[in-house]
Amino acid sequence: DQQVKQNSPSLSVQEGRISILNCDYTNSMFDYFLWYKKYPAEGPTFLISISSIKDKNEDGRFTVFLNKSAKHLSLHIVPSQPGDSAVYFCAASARAGNMLTFGGGTRLMVKP
Amino acid sequence: GAVVSQHPSRVICKSGTSVKIECRSLDFQATTMFWYRQFPKKSLMLMATSNEGSKATYEQGVEKDKFLINHASLTLSTLTVTSAHPEDSSFYICSARLTLRSEQFFGPGTRLTVL
Predict the structure, then answer these.
(1) In sequence order, what are the beta bridge partners of B19?
(2) Chain A / chain B CB contacts < 8 angstroms
């Protein structure tokens, strides 16, 4: 049973436009959510996080939105750049162990 | 951000041999380190949680006698794949958690190929 799902395996966006990556979760115990970016043959790189007490967190070109009632979060990248092309994983943790449960990832391709 | 290193980055071994992978937090102390495995085009699967000075906690389906984890210090955890088989070939990634914070910082990963 996948507790964290990223239903879009891939996304293609034109440079300069907005990229929106979506993530859904089922476990109501999750209270901390993170987005990671991953290049092939490298470890994930932390991008941005959000606590369940907030509904939005912004850091430069990256904004994460959390809709607790819908158990849905999204990552917005604007403007998108070719260097943003990578696989993006959302992850969630519950207060108790802080171990992360990852979604399946979405491959973002930003075309020049 | 915090830096986590892994060594080796790539290893090829014969079936039946054991391979040790090191994970180090370079500029911070990590009471907890995590070991993940990634299959091609798949998500990261948590294998075990490693706490300094105590036994690792393994996820369901992960053989603790096959994947030996030692977290001897606040900056070093090791994963030993014992009696490796070709199906153990994978990309192994460790992460370290800053104490009292939820962000995990990941190592660059180790590509294991068992012939």
Answers:
(1) B81
(2) 51
What secondary structure, in 3-state letters, does A32-100 show? EEEEEEECCCCCCEEEEEEECCCCEEEECCEEEEEECCCCEEEEEECCCCHHHCEEEEEEEEECCCCCC
Give every strand in the sheet of A56-59, ordered side by side.
A4-5, A19-25, A72-77, A62-67, A56-59
Please, which residues 45-104 of chain A have a Cβ atom closer than 8 Å to chain B? 45-46, 49, 89, 93, 97-104
Q: In A, which residues are within 8 Å of B103 by CB distance?
A: 34, 46, 49
How far apart (Å, rounded) are the C-alpha atoms in residues A68 and B82? 43
On whether any CB of chain B is under 8 Å from the CB of A43, the answer is yes
Query: Could you list the pLDDT tens digit for every one of the 115 residues in chain B?
Result: 678 999 999 999 999 999 999 999 998 888 889 999 988 777 889 999 988 888 899 999 999 999 999 988 889 999 999 999 999 999 999 999 876 566 788 999 999 999 9
Please choose, from the candidates B86, B104, B102, B81, the residue with its C-alpha nearest in 3D space to the C-alpha of residue B22. B81
